[in-house]
Amino acid sequence: MSVSFSRFLKIIYSYCFLFDFIICYAIYAAFFTLSGIGILDIGLLLAFWSGSAIILEVFSGALSDWLDRSWLLIAAPLLKIGTFICWALADGNFWVFGFGFLFWSAGQSLYSGTLEALLYERAAHEGKEDDYDEYYGKANAAEKLGTAAGVLLGGFVAAWSVHALDGMVVTFWLSIPPLLVASFIAIGLTDIRHETEDSEGLGYWQNIGEAFAEFKRLPELRFITLYIAVGLILFEELEEFYTIYYVVVDLPLWLFGVVGAVGIGIAAIFSAYAHRLNGHQALGWALPALGGVLFIISSFANHAAYVIVLELAYLVAIPAAILSEARFQQVIEGQSRATTTSILYLIQNVMALSVAFLFGWLAQQLDLLSAFGWAGVVLLFVSAWMWWMIKDGHKPFS
């Protein structure tokens, strides 16, 4: 028996908060650097993270369409715990860091696609699918608030330790309890398909075939996928290098968590209210263009205050990401919703892999600040393509 819709939303939002309440988030890239891992090697680790996610993504999406979605949401946090155990015990070993990212990919692949499908289907069951962008925005806001809380706490825990590396290791262990709680509360979620479908759903491999067929027959689904996975991926992937930027501009360690938490907290507000911008298609190209300009400005940093410009570059893309991902769910027509969503994430991860490697290589050849500047230039060209596509009648938002 499913819980009431209001209760369901509370569980979803709490789950999203706890799943991303990662206390080491503020410092893990800096931890790699201080452990002797070079910027190029960090780029390779992030690329491996994306590569392992690519392998797992579609198969986990089909698993979600085949099995009870709530089971996967119970398992996802437990797998993610393996990440922080590996990192806490890595002792500077590149391969153990990489193995930790494999656990993260496994947990994230069960979470991504599954949560969106579960939320959309329950909203549709309640006759509220047109409000999905609001529910998804609030779920995304809960994720970001969880990240912000973890970032804020993690920065202080790391800074208060006599030895910086020891304090950073403590944040890995402290990232585990929230994930245990997330797994526990997911028991209260119900896959509404089991209460509404009269016939059996598609088989495992049929779900994969149906999802690819949907991309073939729906041009708008292909456009939104390119918009998200090619147009907006730079904002998501470059954020992984932000703490290294903090190191380069000499931001005090204790401010790592404060800056990260404030930025993510504002991002949560943008996520929660993004639905109010729905229908303003011009923002589909204008927001990424503004982000590109801000990346270029941040590349001229000669003071720690430039981190504000860098954070603004991340923030301006938030509404575009929320609204385009909500439209993606509304365009899907078939039964294989989680698998179709996982294909989107697969393409995102392919692009993220490329961005992580190329950005790391560029930072190694030039320097980190110059790499951010060139990323901004690329975004301006991408925004011009978005403008042309929107002018041609495509809609990134509902």
Architecture overview:
This protein has one domain: Growth Hormone, Chain: A (Up-down Bundle). Helix content is 77%, strand content 0%. The mean pLDDT is 87. The chain has 20 helices and no strands. The longest helix has 29 residues, at 132-160. Helix 4 (69-89) runs antiparallel to helix 6 (114-125), helix 4 runs antiparallel to helix 9 and helix 16 (283-298) packs antiparallel against helix 20 (368-391). By secondary structure, the chain is mainly α. The two termini are 33 Å apart. The chain is globular, with a radius of gyration of 20 Å.
Give a brief rundown of this model.
This protein has 398 residues and is mainly α. Helix content is 77%, strand content 0%.
Secondary-structure map with pairings?
Blueprint: H1 5-19, H2 28-34, H3 39-66, H4 69-89, H5 94-111, H6 114-125, H7 132-160, H8 164-174, H9 176-185, H10 193-196, H11 204-217, H12 219-231, H13 233-238, H14 242-248, H15 253-273, H16 283-298, H17 307-315, H18 318-331, H19 337-365, H20 368-391
